[in-house]
Amino acid sequence: MKRPTFFVSSTIHDFRDLRSALKFYLEEQGCKVLASEFNDFTKPLDKHSYEACLASIHTADYFVLLIGNRVGGWFNEATRTSITQREYREAYELQRSGKIKLLSFVRAEIWNMKEDRRGLVTYLDSLPIDESRKKAIANFPSKIADDADFITTFISEVTRNRETSAATKTGAVRPSGNWVHSFSGFRDLIAVFESELFTSMPVEDLTIRRLLRRELREFLKRTLVKAKGGRAYSPKGWIDAFHQQRPISAAGRAAKVTALNTKAWDALSSVALNLLAVRLHPVVVPQALASSTFLAFDRDSDSYQETPAYEALFSLQQEITSLTEGNISQALAIVFANTRNRRSQISDTIEVDTAKLANLLYLLDRWVNVVELSKSLLRHLDGRAFEAPVLRPRSPIQGMTEQIEEETPNEADIDSFVLKA
User: Fold this and answer.
1) Torsion sign over Cα 110, 111, 112, 114
2) pTM of the prediction?
3) How far is the C-alpha of 292 from the C-alpha of 313, rounded, in Å?
């Protein structure tokens, strides 16, 4: 995936810390950042630094403009054009042709200064003093701005005030790319990036979701049953039907053999043969579990909590492991040993080894759960609210799952053990 590239334009000395923090944040999102004061900025030795910066803007996807209280270096002192202003004009022309997007920011105190200065100029115009004195008063240097006239003029250029006013009067097309965001701190900048670009989701999370979606679809490609007519089905319908018709009770599991309806067994064994082609090797699932992609921040506990989607992903990994470990030739031996061709006589019932049947049903249940979990997670990745699927129990023997859960230490048992002196 091509990483989005950001060019950061501002005066450097008064924005040094902010530029550094912004570069770190964007790179954490998987982006590339062009900031001239850093060593990873390409510095062609046969070009002036100004020209190199202007050329680099053409390689960027986004142009980030930060306006503060300094003018910075002059690109052309005679025309009072700063290097930051010149970079902006280069980017604006690219923006007009759809080759780059602008993100313009002005410090809140500078924005307020601009508004105050507008009021001051209006007031000075009402006084009977000469124009040079009015200008000297309005542009008097302060800690807020070293050249108020230049900075306010630059802001007006970025907001496209004159062009907007002219378009309003004449009905012409209004200028684009004139959004300006006021900011007081770093968090204000990040809020804009998250709402405008990242939709509150880091690029790493977006990448994991995209790769996970592909892997889940690959799982379904290998686990769905292609029936006559070309339609793909989950094995759930066949396997649920068999469990309902001939459940194995806790008492019945002690029997050496189990009598089954021949038709029901043939339907089940035909589906079970599809397991021969099921080989799953998850790569993205473990990465997603190790990331924060499916975690949610809980303000009350000041910690990240597992979401239902995370729990489903964890269950999917367990089910795949159990399916992979159990999907061996011995597990399917009962199917091959009781095919139609191997039966000595035609009968409505067939007797099969109970232990081997339970082992096969356990494997089939894992297969169903892999399909159902993959489907639910895919729907969630496609934008739906997560809905937990109905899964097959841990044991195919009635009542055994509850017994296993009762005998397995739960979270409270573990907490008690860990905290016990």
Assistant:
1) positive
2) 0.58
3) 13
One-letter amino acid of 304: Y
Q: Coil, strand, or helix at residue 350?
A: strand
C-alpha distances in angstroms, 134 versus 115, 120, 123, 140? Answer: 17, 10, 10, 10
Q: In the chain, what are the domains?
A: 5-198 (3.40.50.10140), 203-419 (no CATH)
Q: Residue 150: which of 179, 186, 113, 204 has the closest Cα?
A: 113
Question: Environment class of residue 48 by beta-carbon count within 10 Å: exposed (0-12), middle (13-18) or buried (19+)?
Answer: exposed
Angstrom distance (rounded) from CA 364 to CA 248: 14
255 close to 209: Cβ distance less than 8 angstroms: no
Give me 279's structure tokens: 């080989």
For residue 68 the two structure tokens come to 């503060």
d(CA 65, CA 154): 11
304 Ramachandran zone, left/alpha/beta (phi>0; psi -120 to 50): beta
pLDDT in tens, the chain (421 residues): 457 899 999 998 889 999 999 999 888 777 889 999 998 888 888 889 999 999 999 999 999 999 998 999 999 999 999 999 999 999 999 999 999 999 999 999 988 887 777 766 776 777 788 777 767 776 666 667 778 888 988 999 999 988 998 888 888 889 888 999 999 999 999 989 888 777 655 667 778 988 999 999 999 999 999 887 789 999 999 999 999 988 887 777 788 999 999 999 999 999 999 998 899 999 999 999 998 889 887 767 767 889 999 999 999 999 999 999 999 888 899 999 888 888 777 888 999 999 999 999 999 999 999 999 999 999 999 888 899 999 998 888 877 777 777 778 888 888 888 887 6
Q: How many Å apart are CA 224 and CA 368, to the nearest integer?
A: 9
